[in-house]
Design goal:
119 residues, alpha+beta, 4 helices, 31% helix, 13% strand, flat
């Protein structure tokens, strides 16, 4: 009998929790008083999208200036963010990639390299 009462209480709590619908007011994006018609990013290697020890296309496309330009488009900036991009994913050939763990440590391979090196 006690187990039946406990199961009934748990069931009632689950029904109550699942019946709740959150009331969230999602604000519309607004630029406020800021003018985003032109945007220039000046910086160092982090600004250009340097990651994994090299500069490559997808790293540049995921750089913070590119992300900011995408967000600025939501609040009225028109046009394309022009960014000089590398030709491919190889970059300058120094890109490092984590491929797994061994007993001696992590296996990090230079992008496109045939021989893995343990560090």
């Amino acid at each position: 009998m006690r187990k039946l009462k406990f199961n009934t209480i748990i069931l009632a709590l689950l029904v109550l929790v699942s019946a709740c619908k959150p009331m969230i007011d999602v604000p519309a994006p607004s630029a406020g008083n800021v003018d985003f018609t032109s945007y220039v990013a000046i910086g160092n290697s982090l600004t250009s999208g340097y990651q994994d020890g090299d500069l490559f296309r997808s790293g540049q496309q995921n750089s913070y200036p590119s992300m900011l330009a995408t967000q600025f488009n939501y609040v009225g900036r028109k046009g394309e963010f022009k960014q000089p991009l590398m030709a491919d994913e190889t970059g300058f050939g120094n890109r490092l990639k984590f491929t797994g763990m061994t007993a001696t440590g992590p296996v990090i391979v230079s992008y496109g390299a045939a021989n893995p090196q343990n560090f």
